[in-house]
Amino acid sequence: MMTFWQMLLCAILQGPTDVSSDAIAARDAELPGVLVERVPLAELRLRVVGMDYVPVPRSQLQDLLKNDRSAAPVAATLPRIREARYVARLNGTRLEQGQLEFDIYPESRPSDTGPLLIGQTNLQQLQITDQQGSIELAADSARRLFLLKPGVPGNLTGSWTSDGLVTGDVVTFRLELPAATISRFELLADPNILLTGVGSLVLDPELVPATSENRELKKWTILPGDAARLTFNCRAQRQVQSLDPMQLATFNAAHELEGDILKSRWTIGLPSELNGRARLTARISSEVRVADVTLEDRRPVEWQVTEENDQQILSMLLPAASESTILNISAASVLPQTESWELPMLSPAQWFSRNDEHRGPIQSPIGQISVLMPKTVHLDEWMLVGIQERDIVTGPDQSREYQLTQFLPEASAIARTSTSEPRLTDSVVTLVEPAGHLATVRCLVNVQCEGASVVELQWPVSQDWQVIAARYASNSRALFFEFPATDPAAATSPLTLHLPESLEPGSSRVIEIQFRQSDVSDTRTIDLPLAENRRIERINAVVVFPPAFTLSTELQRHWTAGRPLLTLEEVLRSMTWLPESKLSSGGQFYAISGSQSINLVAEVAADTPNSNGIELEHAVRMVEGKIVETSRIVLRADQQFGESLTLLIPSRAANELRWSMDGEPISARRDVAAGEPQEWR
Predict the structure, then answer these.
(1) Taking the model in full, what pTM does it have?
(2) If one looks up domain 74-236 in CATH, what number appears?
(3) I need a labelling partner for 199 at 20 to 30 A (CA). Which of 124, 536, 551, 585 fits?
């Protein structure tokens, strides 16, 4: 092959070598921009024999020069070959008997009228022929090959070879192919050859029956992702015999704790002898549930789990033409509700040939294990057998990754952990909606979490309310909830919400819960639906009535008595999480947080040595148009509180206070202390 300028010079120099300077100037005027080199005739003949120069008819010189000067940039050149097909035979580290076939686009563009551009390639001993015979090749200034023949044939054939790069027992071929829209490559190889592609689709091999000239072969078909570039590897598989031990290349495990679920992933590097034609078995912990088994290229692996001798045995059948040497096993397990739990283990056991004719043990190398725990879980100690702790890495979110090294295949690890208690707070907006003679209420609850993650939330629901629905307020995603039948004798019933994902420390969720008043309820005595959970601190709460509340005013009078009226700005300022679109303009807003009962509990707890022994129940009801509030203080029988108990009540409470214990009236005395705050008495 030769460059265009070399051919041009060769054509110019086809005349007598003893041309005068006037003749050279005339040729330069005829072909402006062409450099002329004077070569002795003997040297010229040697270069032609050595294929350095190729004679070109002078009649084609102008067309070739025009094509070279008007050629588009390399990046903008469209391929002239519609489909390219290649066939080769693998012989050791070399591709031999290479054949090619090009289907050419018909002439449809002005640029298609010049010589056929093949493009860049690293194929060796490339020869291209048409129906008339072999066609000479040349290269332009961008080292792109083109045919030294006018016209565009519809079909071309040719031959080629290529050498591979040897790395260990793998032969790699990196081919740069002529530019084409579609390429297809077929490789004939011995049956023990395993082919893997890089960035290409490798189809399952086909058996080629033996002939008088060739023994039985396998035909591999490759569809390159890039039609102009193809990379693939060839590796010979050695024959395996029964009882031959197989050494795994790598063995790693990664575990991640999320709530009470431990997600596990094992990554196994397979030796070349096993990949593509074997069945593997492994022992796995009984509490583990396998979810998926795939190769590195995401191809699924057929698997099943059986019970043998009180052990789980995982059996995996590798694909016949797998393109990967990495096996991924994904699983999960539910940790027991105890401080100590065992780390799931997987131990490779045996390999089997596809027809189970041969089998042998699997040997595992030194493995690496990582265990990722959130910041809310504290590891107290490891109890390790055949495993050694190597390092601890703290993440940006204060999670800890424990890195372990496994030396024995039958190793074990037991972790003893302790968790932090979650600290929850909530803010509640109760939206009252008219619904005939019964009230429908929507509660928007903003729950914030600290300390530890939670997967369920619980609140007591006041009597005479029914739960209609629960969902996320942001995307209306429905939440599964449990609300048992109401006990007529109970003041509240528990509502349990199961979250689809855990509520992590430092995050919050806005939940919308819809309630409906029961048919037998009394509007004059019914309480707000969502009561307080003692384990969730309530920051603030607001009840909202629409501008035109057509329901009986008994409910509004009952829920707003003694509670301050707020403006819309005050509500939005105290609840920054609440979208203004959720509130109706012109509505009435009443604060229901900071009630007398809450303050009373706080003061009792402050003056009592054993505050954990006190429980307080507070109820409000209407009696003949008057508001009657009853506070019930429950003292544990096993706690000592002395002969008297001091309580502080708000100054705005009525003077007509009645005190009783176990249903019997008792006397109470008011002591006025110096410096007592005016809001308390």
Answers:
(1) 0.43
(2) 2.60.40.1730
(3) 124
